[in-house]
Design goal:
The strands form three sheets. A five-stranded antiparallel β-sheet has the order 7-8-9-10-11. The chain has a four-stranded antiparallel β-sheet with strand order 3-4-5-6, with no helix packed on it. The relative contact order is 0.12. The chain has helices at 13-21, 32-40, 66-80, 85-99, 149-152, 192-201, 206-213, 217-234, and strands spanning 11-12, 63-64, 110-112, 117-122, 128-132, 138-140, 154-156, 163-169, 172-174, 184-185, 190-191. Helix 1 (13-21) packs across helix 2. With 235 residues, it is α+β, with helices and mostly antiparallel strands.
Length: 235
């Protein structure tokens, strides 16, 4: 069942692919077709890993929500660590069944040791347990698997424990409640694409653009640097 677009962000598969590619240190691209496959599966080959909030919304190119985007981010990084799509599908199903929520990969306290995925819970005595979602293996009183750096970029709602904001780049955030979830300069709330386009259209003069928008030149350059980074990773 689809959800309302307002305050939930909206991204085409192409936009999602560019944002995801920007997180890769080796600047490898993530194709829109790859993102599409995670949400829709490969016909006659393999099923989807997860599903879009907007799968019932007519769209020629396919669209996803902010929480869909975060799930794709987690899937991307776990795949880069060598975790199979088959295992990820099983984990997704186990998380959805355990917590009875959508977007299980968008939930806080997901951990990995590079081989398996764990969720942090507490036993009857209040002691922390790390449960592997497929085999139900417990890891009690041990050092928990490392929380990967890409998860540290995500801020979570303290009540729902679901992702609420992605600090995608220095000074740039993706927040579904602001500008329809498009990347914005966090300090001023203006989309990076708008500031970068104004910079290019005005002889790359950050001071003039800053005066127009009543912001500082460094905010303009934050947007420019991010959009250039997006262009490099999507090239």
């Amino acid at each position: 069942m689809s959800v309302a677009i307002l305050n939930n962000g909206i991204y085409s598969f192409g936009e999602a692919a560019r944002l995801l590619a920007s997180t890769l240190p080796d600047a490898r691209t993530v194709s829109p077709s790859r993102v599409r496959a995670w949400f829709r599966g490969w016909p006659r080959f393999s099923p989807a890993v997860t599903h879009s909030d907007y799968e019932d919304v007519p769209s020629r190119c396919g669209i996803v929500s902010f929480l869909d985007l975060i799930e794709a981010l987690v899937v991307l990084q776990l795949r880069r660590e060598g975790i199979s799509l088959q295992y990820l599908r099983k984990v997704n199903d186990a998380l959805a069944s355990e917590f009875e929520i959508d977007h299980p990969f968008g939930r806080k306290k997901i951990f990995t040791d590079g081989h398996h995925i764990f969720i942090e819970t507490a036993d009857a005595a209040g002691d922390v347990e790390m449960i592997e979602l497929v085999t139900r293996l417990l890891r009690q009183h041990t050092i928990p698997p490392v929380l990967r750096p890409y998860l540290r970029q995500i801020e979570y709602d303290p009540v729902t424990l679901l992702a609420s904001q992605w600090n995608v780049h220095a000074g740039v955030v993706v927040d579904p409640r602001r500008s329809y979830g498009k990347p914005i300069v966090n300090a001023v709330g203006i989309p990076t694409a708008i500031l970068s386009a104004a910079y290019s259209a005005n002889a790359e003069n950050a001071r003039i653009v800053a005066e127009w928008y009543d912001i500082r030149p460094r905010h303009v350059m934050t947007a420019v640097q991010f959009e250039r980074h997006l262009s490099r990773t999507a090239a």
